[in-house]
Write a structure and sequence with these properties.
295 residues, UDP N-Acetylglucosamine Acyltransferase, domain 1, seven-stranded mixed beta sheet, five-stranded parallel beta sheet, 6 helices, binds coenzyme A
């Protein structure tokens, strides 16, 4: 087993070295269907590389091949075939993003010229996650989302890794650095803009917002850029509110609600989230605990 040595900082600043087990992710052998998965991804990559190809059609064709292969060759006639039950025709029609609406399209500030370009890829991403082929299928899912993300986001760095059921608002207001990991069921509301630095990690069921509503009038919406700097970790079920800036290597604890900025290397917990400690690897001199008094 591999071990790493960590320094544990207790409340009164005594230090104690502990040996902790380190569990890096394992490498798994290729599955028997890996070659077919490569083929699917290569075809999709080629299709979306060409800016002139109709992305609605790419999305519809792929989803139809996965979900209703018997109609993949004759989708155009099947959606109008009155002999088919209305539910079947609707289900087929809904594979084409032009036949569905997504919530962000109703937002007043939605830039249609940008959203309509990314909508087919978002619809493919969300729908794929709800098929037996997608969802929990880690290898294929991560690779497919890594392929789509740079075509959706304003900027997407290397090795972007997203697990299943991640949702965005516009998608086009996302700026993402290198080696960012987003776990399952995360909401990335980029309505006012989300800027994620390198090596940011967002755990299961976290919510990162960039818009808020007036407490008086629900329709009074304020957008504000939310920033998570390099190395930030937002842990399970935590929420970061619009306009909050989490400094480098900052951490928001499980179920916390970050309503205000989090200082670099600080660990903020609770509702509203307050600093309970500074990470022992913080670069600046002695840790001043009075400045990070636990609540
Ligand atoms: C934030 C966190 C990392 C703090 O861990 P830690 O540095 O070991 O801190 P401690 O457990 O010593 O807690 C310090 C104090 O904060 C409190 N605290 C810790 N986490 C808390 C949380 N999420 N919410 C509220 N209070 C919390 C502790 O009860 C303790 O309070 P006390 O001093 O009154 O006893 C941890 O609690 C946490 O939330 N982990 C989430 C892990 C995670 O999601 N990982 C990602 C996996 S994908």
């Amino acid at each position: 087993m591999l071990y790493c040595r960590v320094v544990y900082l207790s409340g009164n600043l005594t230090t104690e070295e502990l040996a902790m087990p380190l569990f890096p992710l394992r490498k798994l052998p290729a599955t028997p269907i890996s070659g077919v998965a490569d083929e699917l991804l290569a075809t999709l990559e080629d299709a979306i590389a060409d800016e002139n190809t109709d992305r609605n059609r790419i999305c519809r064709t792929l989803l139809c091949q996965i979900l209703y292969p018997e109609y993949a060759e004759n989708w155009d006639t099947a959606v109008e075939d009155a002999k088919l039950p209305a539910a079947t025709r609707l289900a087929l029609a809904s594979l084409d993003p032009r036949n569905v609406t997504l919530e962000p399209e109703y937002y007043a500030e939605c830039d249609d010229s940008r959203f309509q370009l990314v909508k087919p890829l978002l619809w493919l991403w969300y729908s794929f996650d709800r098929t037996p082929l997608g969802g929990q299928n880690v290898d294929l899912g991560v690779r497919l989302r890594r392929l789509l993300a740079p075509k959706i986001f304003k900027r997407c760095g290397r090795n972007f890794k997203a697990f299943q059921h991640v949702e965005f608002s516009f998608g086009y207001n996302m700026e993402v650095g290198d080696d960012v990991v987003v776990h399952r069921h995360v909401l990335l509301d980029d309505r006012g803009g989300l800027v994620l630095g390198d090596k940011v990690s967002i755990s299961d069921y976290a919510n990162i917002y960039s818009h808020t509503h007036s407490i008086v009038d629900q329709k009074d919406v304020t957008d504000a850029v939310t920033r998570l700097d390099d190395g930030v970790r937002i842990t399970y079920h935590a929420t970061v509110l619009a306009g909050v800036h989490v400094g480098e290597e900052g951490m928001v604890g499980a179920v916390a609600v970050a309503t205000k900025d989090v200082r670099p290397y600080h660990v903020n917990v609770g509702i509203p989230a307050k600093s309970v400690r500074v990470k022992p690897n913080a670069p600046t001199g002695p840790v001043n605990l009075t400045a990070i008094k636990p609540r």
